[in-house]
Amino acid sequence: MFFSYILYSKARNKYYLGSTSDLQNRLKKHNTNHSGFTGHTGDWCVVWTEVFETRTEAILKEKQIKSWKSRLMIEKLIASVR
User: Fold this and answer.
1) Which residues contact residue 80 at a Cβ distance below 8 angstroms, ignoring those fewer than 6 apart?
2) How confident is the model at residue 81 (pLDDT cuts 50, 70, 90)?
3) How does pLDDT run across 20-70, given as a tens digit for each residue?
4) pLDDT at 82 exceeding the cut of 80
5) Is the dihedral of CA 34, 49, 73, 55 positive or negative?
6) In whole angstroms, what is the distance from residue 21 CA to residue 76 CA?
7) Other CB atoms closer than 10 Å to residue 5's CB: what's the count?
8) Which of 1, 18, 25, 46 is the most buried (most CB within 10 A)?
9) What total number of domains does the chain contain?
10) What is the pLDDT of residue 35?
11) Is 9 within 8 Å of 16 (Cβ atoms)?
12) 65: domain CATH number?
């Protein structure tokens, strides 16, 4: 099982998109103090996920969402599952 996911940081007011096979562990890593994009805030939370059978499918969904380059479309996606 693989996941495409969107995280949100209230401190940064930003979204982060990714894919993984272990969502819980990946979230822990995002919330550690490191030098990457998600580092130093520690308040990232999962706001959207979709489950896929293969890693390829999860990555394709992540790339599709990233290609939108639109915060509004990302927020519409998140709102559609609430």
Assistant:
1) none
2) confident
3) 999 999 999 999 988 889 988 999 999 999 999 999 999 999 999 999 999
4) no
5) positive
6) 25
7) 23
8) 18
9) 1
10) 86
11) yes
12) 3.40.1440.10
pLDDT at 38: 92
Cα–Cα distances in angstroms (integers) from residue 81 to residues 30, 32, 64, in the given order: 23, 28, 18
Tell me the C-alpha distance between 35 and 49, whole Å.
25
Q: Which amino acid is at 43?
A: D
The helix/strand/coil state of 46 is: strand
Residue the block writes with tokens 């999962």:
46
Q: Greatest CA span in the chain, whole angstroms?
A: 33
**Unique residue bearing structure tokens 């999860």:** 58
Domain that holds residue 38: 2-80
